[in-house]
Amino acid sequence: MSVIPDKPQAPFPDKPKVPAADQTLRILRFLAHQRGPVAAQTVATQLDLPRSSVYHLLAAMESHGFVVHLEGDRRWGLGTAAFELAGGYARQEPLARLGRPIVAQLADRAGESAHLAVMTGRDVLYIVEERAPRRPTLITDVGVRLPAHLTATGRAMLAALPREQVRALFPDAASLSAERTGRGPGRPRELRELLRQTRADGHATEDGEVTLGFRSIGVAVRDHAEWPAAAIAITWPEDAQVDPIRLADLAIDAAADLSRRIGRR
Predict the structure, then answer these.
(1) What is the pLDDT of residues 193-223, one digit of tens each?
(2) pLDDT less than 50: residues of the chain
(3) Which PANTHER family match (predicted)?
């Protein structure tokens, strides 16, 4: 007599008591693993959900900022509220705890101050700061938020995002209006060119846009889905005798180390 093998048990055998909540979380998780925005039909097909339900849920999430609808492309991507969740995760310490020894070692090797930041909306939030000996205190202290498009950490993360996502975050000149020293991109076209150069160089730079007299180099920290989970940067006084290429290499190595520790293959 043949024996029929037992059917494998599902990780969560009980049906969700709130199907809409379950479907919403599945959609968010699916979008988070994509390289860029996708069509609603793709979401429905991949998750085996009714298309009408997907549209209703996406509309609800859009009203709360968790997704954005790119009308011209007819695609959906994560919104700024999703970044807020990522920032909340970072504030609860796991990323900071993993990054702190790496940033400290980077500051020692570079002889300059180093920091770790995450994206939250259109800003970056600094979660680790290591000041090098005999270097002045920087504005980039833990808990400080600065406009992402002005900072090396923010530019590094923006350059690692899909271009459609950047357009959703910075659709017009008004979204780029925050400035500190009168420097930095003032139009979306200028930001796109800056990010193009960042991708070509493999790292971001900043020269006096945050604080006059200081420069920075930043590199994105990517997670298992190649999403920019954070960025590491080095900052130094512009009159310091440094080799920017060497500092960029050190930042790239540090970012790669942290990327591996958070699960990037």
Answers:
(1) 999 999 999 999 999 899 899 999 999 999 8
(2) 1-13
(3) HELIX-TURN-HELIX TRANSCRIPTIONAL REGULATOR, ICLR FAMILY (PTHR30136), HTH-TYPE TRANSCRIPTIONAL REGULATOR RV1719 (PTHR30136:SF35)
> Looking at this protein, which amino acid is placed at residue 108?
D
Decide which of 3.30.450.40, 1.10.287.990, 1.10.10.10, 3.40.190.10 is the CATH code for 83-261: 3.30.450.40
CATH, range 19-78: 1.10.10.10
pTM over 0.85: no
Residues 6+ apart with CB under 8 A from 132: 107, 110, 111, 112, 113, 114
Can you spell out the DSSP letters for the chain?
Answer: ---PPPPPPPSS-SPPSSHHHHHHHHHHHHHHTSSS-B-HHHHHHHHT--HHHHHHHHHHHHHTTSEEEETTTTEEEE-HHHHHHHHHHHHTSHHHHHHHHHHHHHHHHHTSEEEEEEEETTEEEEEEEEPPTT-PPPS--TT-EEEGGGSHHHHHHHHHS-HHHHHHHS-SGGGG---SSS-S--SHHHHHHHHHHHHHHTSEEEESSSSTTEEEEEEEEE-TTS-EEEEEEEEEETTS---HHHHHHHHHHHHHHHHHHTT--
> Taking the C-alpha atoms of 189, 195, 197 and 200 in order, what is their torsion angle to the nearest 10 degrees?
-140
Distance, in Å, from the CA atom of 140 to the CA atom of 113, rounded to the nearest integer, reads 10
User: Any idea where the domains of the chain sit in the sequence?
Assistant: 19-78, 83-261
Q: Quote the CA–CA distance of 241 and 258 in Å, as a whole number.
A: 27
Distance CA 118, CA 255 (A): 13
Give 8-27 pLDDT, tens digit per residue: 333 444 555 678 898 999 99
